[in-house]
Amino acid sequence: MKFISEASTSVKIQKMKERVRWRHSSITARGIDQTSMVLDNGKDNPDFSFMVIGDSGTKPYPGFHPQRKVAEMMLPHREECSFVLHTGDVIYVVGSQEYYPRNFIEPYREFIQGGENYKCIPYNRITFNETPILPVLGNHDYYDVPLMSRLVAGSTKLLRQFFRYKDIEIGWHGSEQGNAFAQAFIDCLGNIDSEQMLAEHLDTHYTAKTDAGVCLRYEPGIFTRIPNRYYTFRYSGIDFFALDSDTFNMPSPIPSTRQGDEKRRQLSKQRHDIEAEQIQILDNITKLNPENCNHAQQLDELNAKLNQIDEVKIDIEKQLTSSSRSNLIDWEQLDWLKKRLIESWHSDEVRGRIIFFHHPPYVTEATKWHQAQTLAMRHRLREVFDAVARTLGSRNSERPIVDLILNGHAHCLEHLRTTNTGHADSNINCIVSGGSGHRPRRQRKEGNELMEKFMTPTGIDNRKVAESYLFAGRNGHHEMRRLPYSFVRIDVKAGNPPKFTARPFIAEWYQNKWSNISLEPFEF
Questions:
Q1: CA distance 210 to 322
Q2: Which one, out of 73, 215, 437, 516, has a CA that is 20 to 30 A from the CA of 315?
């Protein structure tokens, strides 16, 4: 049975455009830039701090609640931090609206207006207080559920057990091509019925001004909606670029050659093998009782394997269905990023640049580095950075295109730095903050150095492209298993270029109790 499905890139883009009334006449007439916002929170100082979380949106586990524990660790930093960036996968498993109350509103209630009565807050009526959470879409926020899976998951416990798939967060709804995320966080102008109401809304909330034109004013405690699925904002001289990586992570087409045909056969065999493994895991699940503590831990391990299998299957499907058709890649967004980065470099007001999105281009978590989507992300981003560097010429010769890349997707906390890759993505600090609630995963066995194959006139050059300096993920087995959950606080110092200090915060679940793990801050 296929439990998770994903809309095509073109469908995702079109649905999101409809929700924000992309370039509607009332919007263009006012000169509104639908991809920019101004964060108006009265804290715009040269020295500022913010927090980063990701891959958080899961339910409590038997005996402990990782997402709530991370939220509690964040609370003492609220007054000193201007905002929280969320790197995606806000809701597991399929971004369904019915899980927002339990998997988002309840654990982060102190960050939400009226959070003391969190049970009364609808998922599409969230207003953040003085430290807002600014998210990007993750792959799970876009997933949907085939009808048969909905019938199984949303029906009685007995029927779920009969179909050998229980204790899953699917229910009756999927994300509806990202609609639940949009209704929770994005300013969905498509919800406004009349032209008069639309005009009043635009004149009320789109009053800020940037170099690109009029834009949305994001006001904590009053109006906390982001303008689009990808967007930018400037804060204390730092330009932040939020991207929707789900629409440009399609792997490159497999060539129609003998080697390409062999790769397709290998992928098909791999899919067959992991589907057989999935059936065996489902069979083992039916023999376990979630009310039993030991069984509950085994269920956690098996469900983690099922999640990994789903990810691998989707990655295989993307490779097998990839083609040269241009609508598989969101070129419009990538061109937007290139244009805005160039504009940022030509502005005297900007002293630094940070981009954040879900899928990491560099990571040593065991399940991610060899995925075709990871390579696709790296190549897409590299193409943009190379194009920006060519346009800028010597203007950025002593600095990287961006100061920091923030990602999720990998269920860990990791700090990496790229080497001299031979491209404009050289010497960039990267932080993966994807360990804020969902099951942590292990580091790959190959070690901290990431190697990539490059085609050269003389053959293949296997080149070191990045190195990992910190990794916090699952380790140990059975009763010795350690599960670290995390967020990172980033302090930005005055000056041009700015200095950054990253402070990791980790709570580890080990032998049925929590322990706080102290790690030294690192600067760059």
A1: 38
A2: 437
Indicate the length of the chain as a whole number: 524
Mean pLDDT of the chain: 89
Average pLDDT (447-471) is 90
Range 205-214 average pLDDT: 93
The torsion region of residue 89 among left (phi > 0), alpha (psi -120 to 50) and beta comes to left
Helix, strand, coil distribution of the chain in percent, nearest 5: 35, 25, 40
Domain 5-253+322-523 has CATH 3.30.300.130: no
CA distance 230 to 452: 29
Cβ(352)–Cβ(403) under 8 Å? yes
Looking up tokens 């209704």 gives: 183
Which residues neighbour 262 within 8 Å (Cβ) at sequence distance 6 or greater? none
Counting Cα atoms < 13 Å in the Cβ hemisphere of 275 gives 13
Determine the Cα–Cα distance for residues 452 and 461; give it in Å rounded to an integer: 8
Q: What is the pLDDT of residue 418?
A: 98
Residue that is written with structure tokens 């990287």 in the block = 400
Q: Are 20 and 190 in contact (CB under 8 A)?
A: yes
* Contact by Cβ (8 Å): 88, 135: yes
User: Residue 274 contacts by C-beta under 8 Å, 6 or more apart in sequence?
Assistant: 309, 312, 313
Cα–Cα distance measured from residue 496 to residue 498, given in angstroms and rounded to the nearest whole number: 5
Residue 122 Ramachandran class (φ > 0 left, ψ -120 to 50 alpha, else beta): beta
Of 254, 256, 244, 267, which is closest to residue 380 (Cα–Cα)? Answer: 244
Tokens representing residue 280 in the block: 């065996």
Domain segments of the chain: what residues? 5-253+322-523, 258-319
Per-residue pLDDT at 324: 54
Amino acid identity for residue 353 in this structure: R
Give one DSSP letter per residue of 73-138, joined into a string: HHGGGTTTEEEEEE-S--STTT--GGGHIIIIITTTGGGBTTGGGGGG--TT---B-SS-EEE---
Lowest mean pLDDT among 31-40, 296-305, 414-423, 450-459: 296-305
Secondary structure (DSSP) of 287-348: T--TTSHHHHHHHHHHHHHHHHHHHHHHHHHHHHH--S-GGGS-HHHHHHHHHHHHHHHT-T
Distances (CA, A) of 42 to 81, 106, 124, 219: 12, 27, 26, 9
Torsion angle of the four alpha carbons 356, 361, 366, 368, in this order, in degrees rounded to the nearest 10:
90
